[in-house]
Amino acid sequence: MDSLRLRPSLVRARPGPAAAALRRDHFLPPFCSIHRNGKGPVPLARQRAQGSRFDQCQKFFVWKSSYPRIPHQPTATSTNASGQPLKSGAEVHDSASIWKSISSSLDAFYRFSRPHTIIGTALSIVSVSLLAVESLSDVSPLFLTGLLEAVVSALFMNIYIVGLNQLFDIEIDKVNKPTLPLASGEYSPATGVALVSAFAAMSFGLGWVVGSQPLFWALFISFVLGTAYSINLPFLRWKRYAVVAALCILAVRAVIVQLAFFLHIQTYVFKRPAVFSRPLIFATAFMTFFSVVIALFKDIPDIEGDRIFGIQSFSVRLGQKKVFWICVGLLEMAYCVAILMGATSACLWSKYATVAGHAILGAILWNRSRSLDLTSKAAITSFYMFIWKLFYAEYLLIPLVR
């Protein structure tokens, strides 16, 4: 406290300029001094006469010390026009991160499920099921329920098959399809095992609950062939052998899908006797050609990885160019047969629709195949997806065959 008392001599002294400067120097803090030319601090008060800038600085400190201080209070939460509190920056960032994570997960699963096969499976089942419809009265809630049961259970099995193939092709896909989630590392092998196991269980569970024998046998045979095609066990992994691999795809796409799902609607849903109609025979025959083409063509873009890992596909054994033109020739042959089939139809609208539709598809295929650059992997992959689009288009025409 003694250090805070004013000395009596200063209080009693007449306040001259020197005394006033001393008092100011006594109360100004140490930082209110200025170093000049390295000679040490010079009190601000003693330099008042040396320039107006020192007067301004001194006035600033006086104003600062006399300015009333407002105690700190927490900032009120901003509100919008409706009176609801707005989200803080951290909350907005967290929300954006959550949505980004969800979007990334959905995108990875989308690629894992191989969407072109999903679309093909769904369209084929719907198309073949419509062959069992004899009149508009057949399109009832009973029919739609049976169709939905078939489509959902088949899609679950489809995801199991394509997922299992990716699990055993991780190293190959790092070369051929590096964007797939297992090959890119977005999914761990454990995640892949969990997904394929779950979808296989859901497929069989739904098929069992429905109680349709044709549906359950379709799922079971697809499961067996899909597993034998991919799994790396003795006497299995049939994809290593070109002919056996093609037969697996043909059996599922051409036979199982056409016959089993037609019988599911015909015998289980409509309770009618099994009848192999002309449109059903046409669909089975045409899709036999198409399934062979898909089995052959799918290996053309993958020739590099297949050659490295010893997969003896037809593309590896015969070369890309030869296999490509074999595929085009088979499809053009199938379109010619379909045109003849349509021309012999007794139904006029069916005749025009099937003849014109298959002629247009055949012309588009021929025109595009002539301009394909077989040295470009991107161009070949694009053409492979074009083959799948022709596959979809055919299933739009099949219900018109009468």
TrEMBL record:
It is found in: Membrane; Plastid, Chloroplast. The chain crosses the membrane at residues 118-136, 142-168, 189-209, 215-235, 242-263, 275-297, 323-343, 378-398. It is a multi-pass membrane protein. Pathway: Cofactor biosynthesis; tocopherol biosynthesis. Keywords: Chloroplast, Membrane, Plastid, Transferase, Transit peptide, Transmembrane, Transmembrane helix. Pfam families: UbiA. It comes from the Eukaryota. GO terms for cellular component: chloroplast; membrane. GO terms for molecular function: prenyltransferase activity. InterPro entries: AtHST-like (IPR044502), UbiA_prenyltransferase (IPR000537). NCBIfam families: PRK12887.1. Belongs to the UbiA prenyltransferase family. This is Homogentisate phytyltransferase. It comes from Zizania palustris. The lineage of its organism: Eukaryota, Viridiplantae, Streptophyta, Embryophyta, Tracheophyta.
